[in-house]
Amino acid sequence: MKKQFLESGKIVGTHGIKGEVRIDPWCDSPEFLCAFKKLYLNGDGTESIEVRSRPHKNIALVKIRGIDTIEQAERLRGKVVYINRDDVRLGDGVNFVQDLIGLEVIDCDNGEIYGKITDVLRTGANDVYEITDGAGKKFLIPVIDDVIISRNIDEGVVLIRPMKGIFDDED
User: Are strands 127-132 and 38-40 parallel, antiparallel or unpaired?
Assistant: First the structure.
């Protein structure tokens, strides 16, 4: 089941003396996180905060409405921030990483089940799915059109056509 509120970063410190916080973004970029005017301090969306943000290097500097001192901001250190999935429009073929974790990976040609996605690694050229089988063995598959045939988040399945040598000892 898809989560409505998605973990998107963590408050890692304060900035200045007027209550700004520094957020380490767990999303694509600080710019992505800075596009939101409302964030949440819990996974059920009951504790919302109004924010103004700006990117700074690899973090987001965030001013939270009602937090006006460094002491108030310091109390938020370590808190995870969430976004509402309804506030985001993703392009075709783009998924939230949290929706991919746990999907079953199946060979599209013979139906063999390879395991589940346990992590998504960003390499620059293309993402890489970490697949963990039932015995705990890990495999890495590139997220490229030749390998990933289809993703169905609602059914919990990724169909792949693996490259030789990924799941076997072939050269």
Answer: unpaired
Cα 118-103-38 angle, rounded to 5 deg: 80
The alpha carbons of the chain give a radius of gyration, in whole angstroms, of 19
Give the separation between CA 139 and CA 134, rounded to whole angstroms. 12
Q: How high is the mean pLDDT in each 10-residue block of the chain (171 residues)?
A: 90 96 92 95 94 96 97 97 93 86 95 95 89 94 94 94 78 46
Contacts of 70-75 spanning 24+ positions with Cβ under 8 A: 70/14, 70/16, 70/17, 70/18, 70/19, 72/19, 73/14, 73/19, 73/20, 73/21, 74/14
